[in-house]
Amino acid sequence: MEICEKIEKLIEPSLSDMGYNLVRVLLQGGDLKTLQIMAERNDRVDMTVDDCEKVSRTVSALLDTMDPFAGRWMLEVSSPGLDRPLVKPQDYNRFKGYDAKIETNTEINGRKRFKGRILGLSEDQKTVLFLFEDKQVSFDFDNIAKAKLLLTEDLLKIHQHKK
Q: What is the pLDDT of residues 81-112, one digit of tens each?
């Protein structure tokens, strides 16, 4: 099991109990590793600095027991932001109708990068449906290398309306 998956399994229950949804765990860097924890509030209210501090304290305490890395490393806690990454299958239903950028692991019709509109998940929840250049395409969830929402007027309007 990859280190990020181990960390997710370790911290997700505690964050959930605190009212947060774990969006992503990402490890970056060379000699000095940075562990990025991206979280959001379960009530969908914008994350505050206090929220990030609470998550950071909890994650730090849990990681102290796991000791995941040799040497020095840094912890970075953040919210996903408006142009958030799409990392879990349910993200594609939650953000159905929004514009996104998807990059695949393997080529589909000669390309790996797509910009278009999210149409949701297939019935079996394993395939992402996407409108690309006025045609519906589908991606096996496991073939998606990375994906994120695109910052558009529609996304900004919805965010402003939430406030």
A: 889 999 999 999 999 999 999 999 999 989 99
Locus of tokens 């999210």: 118
Give the homologous superfamily in CATH for domain 3-78: RimP-like superfamily, N-terminal (3.30.300.70)
* 115 touches 78 (CB < 8 A): no
The tens digit of pLDDT for each residue in 8-67 reads: 999 999 999 999 999 999 999 888 889 999 999 999 888 999 999 999 999 999 998 877
116 DSSP β-pair partners: 100
Q: What is the pTM of this model?
A: 0.84
Angle at 105 between CA 102 and CA 111, to 5 degrees: 65
| Close Cβ partners of 144 (under 8 Å, ≥ 6 residues apart) | 86, 102, 103, 104, 105, 128
